[in-house]
Amino acid sequence: MTSDASLPSSLPDSPVAPPIIETHQTSQVRFKGEGGHILLTLPPESETAESPIGLTWSEIWQQFKQQLDAKERFWQPNTAVHLSVKDRLLDSRQLQAIADALSGVQLQLKRVYTSRRQTAVAAATAGYSVEQQSAVAHLSQSGGEAGQAMEEPMYIQMTLRSGTEIRHNGTVVILGDLNPGSSVIAEGDILVWGRLRGVAHAGCKGNARCLIMALQLEPTQIRIADFVARAPENPPAQYFPEVAYVAPQGNIRIAKATDFTRAKDEGKG
Amino acid sequence: MARIIVITSGKGGVGKTTCTANLGMALAKRRRKVAVVDADFGLRNLDLLLGLENRVVFTAVEVLAGQCRLEQALVKDKRHPNLVLLPAAQNRTKDAVNPDQMKQLINALARVYEYILIDCPAGIENGFQNAIAAAQEALIVTTPEIAAVRDADRIIGLLEANNVKRIHLIVNRLKPAMVQANDMMSVEDVQEILAVPLIGVVPDDERVIVSTNRGEPLVLSETPSMAGSAFDNIVRRLEGEKVPFLDLSVQNDGFFSRLRKILSTKIT
Lengths: 269, 268
Prior knowledge:
The complex is a heterodimer.
Chain A: E1 30-34, E2 37-41, H1 57-71, E3 79-84, H2 92-104, E4 107-114, H3 117-125, E5 129-132, H4 135-146, E6 154-156, E7 165-168, E8 172-175, E9 183-186, E10 190-196, E11 199-202, E12 212-217, E13 221-224, E14 227-230, E15 242-246, E16 252-256, H5 257-268
Parallel strand pairs in A: 2-3, 3-4, 4-5, 6-8, 7-9, 8-10, 9-11, 10-12, 11-13
Antiparallel strand pairs in A: 1-2, 12-15, 13-14, 15-16
Chain B: E1 3-8, H1 16-29, E2 34-38, H2 46-49, H3 60-64, H4 70-73, E3 75-76, E4 83-86, H5 99-110, E5 115-119, H6 126-132, E6 137-142, H7 146-161, E7 166-174, H8 176-180, H9 187-194, E8 198-203, H10 206-214, H11 226-238, H12 248-267
Parallel strand pairs in B: 1-5, 1-6, 2-4, 2-5, 6-7, 7-8
Antiparallel strand pairs in B: 3-4
Helix pairs in contact in B: 1-11, 5-6
C-alpha cells in the first residue's frame, strides 16, 4: 500500500457496512487487573439476549488458554484471581481445570462470583470463597457500564493465528503478527507492532476518528467505525509502517506513518 | 424448486472444497443462480478458493445471532454475480451451530437460489451433521485410495440413514498412467465397492494447485484443462444432460499422438 492510497477506490462495489459492534464485556474471556487482584470474567451461558449463540465450554477453554499465554509476563507471582462466571454453569472439573491452569502461571484462584447455585456449590466444595449474585443485579450493573468511558488499553504479546479473535472496549496494542483469518475488534485504536494480515476493526462502536496502524499493513480487511476497505489486488513491492484513518471525504485512507504524524503536526501549527 | 446438494467425503484433503468451488462456478457460468455454503466452521477455506476472502464481512453465525440479515452475509462473486457465498465463521467451532439452525439458513437460501452447494467439513461429527441437515442430494468425493474409499463408504451409509437418498460419486485426482500400470485403483474398482452412480471423474492436474492458490476456480480458465472440463461435464450431468465420460486413457494416447504430430509438422 502506497502512502495515501485510497483503498475503496480499488473496490467500486464496496460491500455492506460492518455492524457497529457492541463489545460486550461478556462476549469474551477477559482478564482485568483490579486493585491488587485479577478479575477473570467468562462469557455468560448461551441464549441470552446479548448473544443468542453462546460459546461452548471448549471454545471458552481455548480463549482462556490463549489469553493466559498472551499476558503471562504482566502478572506478579501469587496474585489472587477472582473468577466471575455470571450465569454460566461450571462443574467442579471445569473449576479445577481453571484453577490448575492459573496455578501453572503462579496465579491463585481465590474467589468465585456466580449467579447459579450449582456453580456456587461446586466452588464452595473446592474451597474457594463464593459470592452468589442474583442474575437481575448483574443485568442492571452491566447496563450502567455501557455509558462509561473506554477501558484502559489492552496489551497483548502473541501471534494471532487464524480463528483467534480479540475484542476489547478500548485500544488494543499487539506485539506480534495478525495472521490471515484472525481479527481484532476494538472500541479504540489498534496498534500492531508486527504484520497486520487479518481483519482489524477500530472504533467498533462508531468512532470514526480511531486509527489502525501497523509496521506492515497488508490486511484482509480493515474497518473503522462503519467504513470498510480491502487491500488493493496487487500488493506493493515494499512495505512501510502505515496508518489507516477515515478521511473527511468519508473513506478509509492509508498514509505512511512518517507522513501521517507530520501532517498532524502541521495541522496543529 | 431449489436443489440442495451437499459435497462430502469423510476423509480430509480429497478435494471437497475444490469441487464445491468449481461446480458452483461452472453452474454460475451456465446462468444458474447458485449459493455455495461453507459448513466448515473454524477451518473455512471456500472463500479462499473463490478468491473472496477479503470481501467477507458477516458470516453464518452473525446471521443466526440476528446481528445481520442473511442477504448482508452473502458475498457476491466478482466474476459471476449469479454466484454467492455464505461464509462460515472462522473464530468459532462446529459446535457453534446446530442442524436446525443450518436447516433454517439453507431453506431461506432455497427460496431464492436454484442450486445450493454445501461444502461439508471432513469427519462425521457435528460439522457433518450440520452440513447434511438440509441436503436432499449428495455428491461423494473420493480419491482412488483405499482410505478415502473406506471413509466414503461410511459416509454413504450415514447419508442413507439420514434420508439423503440421491447420491452420486465423483472420483477425484485419478492418474490414468498409474491405473494403466495397475498401481492405482481404477474407477471401476472404486465403483464396485461404493455402488453409487458415477457422475464424474476428475484427473489429477497440477493446475488445480495453481488455481487454488490464486483463488480462481479452474473452470474459469481461458485455456481448457482436463480437470476443468471434467467439472463442466459433471455440471451438465447434474442438469440432466447425457454426457459421455472423458476416456482418460484414450485422451492420454491422443495427447501423445498430437504431440508427435506437432513435432513432425515442425520438422517439415
